[in-house]
């Protein structure tokens, strides 16, 4: 065979191969490449949406944290105010109770003083009677002289 005929048959085989490739092989490859490109584009857009949603969620979290922090500070301030009010109320009650105790102690002291004075008057009256008895060298009847002894007690 001649080189021209071989070359001619090779050209025909080449064109048949090109036609077969373009008709049956190339469309599925192109379709697979297009689908892959579409999946990549969808993935990139989903990643971009997720990035935007993440930024929005981050802002929301920061806002919620600030709100929680403010609320916590407010509750702490309220608790401090309540604690101070309770302390002041307890101080007032303690002062009032202390005043009552002091007043009761003073009243008790006054009563004890009165009782001690009465006891002293009794003892002084008894001593005065004994002294007078010894001076007069006779017995003084306490029942008979009760009026005199009562006047003596009141003078003391």
TrEMBL record:
It is found in: Cell membrane; Endomembrane system. The chain crosses the membrane at residues 6-26. InterPro entries: ATP_synth_B-like_membr_sf, ATP_synth_b/b'su_bac/chlpt, ATP_synth_F0_bsu_bac, ATP_synthase_B_chain. Keywords: ATP synthesis, Cell membrane, CF(0), Hydrogen ion transport, Ion transport, Membrane, Transmembrane, Transmembrane helix, Transport. It is a single-pass membrane protein. Its main location: membrane. One of its GO terms (cellular component) is endomembrane system. GO terms for molecular function: proton-transporting ATP synthase activity, rotational mechanism; proton-transporting ATPase activity, rotational mechanism. Component of the F(0) channel, it forms part of the peripheral stalk, linking F(1) to F(0). The b'-subunit is a diverged and duplicated form of b found in plants and photosynthetic bacteria. F(1)F(0) ATP synthase produces ATP from ADP in the presence of a proton or sodium gradient. F-type ATPases consist of two structural domains, F(1) containing the extramembraneous catalytic core and F(0) containing the membrane proton channel, linked together by a central stalk and a peripheral stalk. During catalysis, ATP synthesis in the catalytic domain of F(1) is coupled via a rotary mechanism of the central stalk subunits to proton translocation. F-type ATPases have 2 components, F(1) - the catalytic core - and F(0) - the membrane proton channel. F(1) has five subunits: alpha(3), beta(3), gamma(1), delta(1), epsilon(1). F(0) has four main subunits: a(1), b(2) and c(10-14). The alpha and beta chains form an alternating ring which encloses part of the gamma chain. F(1) is attached to F(0) by a central stalk formed by the gamma and epsilon chains, while a peripheral stalk is formed by the delta and b chains. F-type ATPases have 2 components, F(1) - the catalytic core - and F(0) - the membrane proton channel. F(1) has five subunits: alpha(3), beta(3), gamma(1), delta(1), epsilon(1). F(0) has three main subunits: a(1), b(2) and c(10-14). The alpha and beta chains form an alternating ring which encloses part of the gamma chain. F(1) is attached to F(0) by a central stalk formed by the gamma and epsilon chains, while a peripheral stalk is formed by the delta and b chains. Belongs to the ATPase B chain family. This is ATP synthase subunit b. The gene is atpF.
